[in-house]
Design a protein that fits this description.
It is a single chain. The chain is mainly α and 102 residues long. The chain has one domain. The longest helix is centred in the last third of the chain and has 35 residues. It is elongated. The chain starts with a helix and ends with a helix.
């Protein structure tokens, strides 16, 4: 977790922080699951909440560009998962602030 996000968490009350971290743990994405979805089903972008990209990937397989894209994503998946997890953490922090507006 980046220092920036640790600062955001420190700005929360204890109740907000517990809620945000609990929600984050339940919603965060796994690199292992993303790789399994990449290799077996080609639906890893759906898993990472990027529906349009997954549809474009499937369409691009028809012109062989999709195969290159799919292969390059072998190396990009850890970063994609990390970015999605950062977005999830920010969402959880926002939710905690709204729900527990102390």
């Amino acid at each position: 977790m980046d220092a920036h996000y640790k600062v955001l968490l420190k700005e929360l009350s204890e109740k907000q922080r517990r809620y945000a971290l609990s929600r984050y743990e339940n919603k965060k994405k796994s690199v292992a699951v993303a790789y399994l979805l990449w290799i077996f089903f080609g639906v890893y972008y759906f898993y990472l909440n990027r529906v349009v990209l997954n549809l474009l990937l499937w369409i691009s397989f028809g012109i062989l560009l999709g195969i290159i894209w799919w292969a390059v994503d072998l190396f990009r998946i850890p970063g994609l998962v990390e970015q999605r997890n950062r977005d999830i953490l920010v969402e959880c922090i926002k939710d905690a602030r709204v729900i527990f507006n102390d």
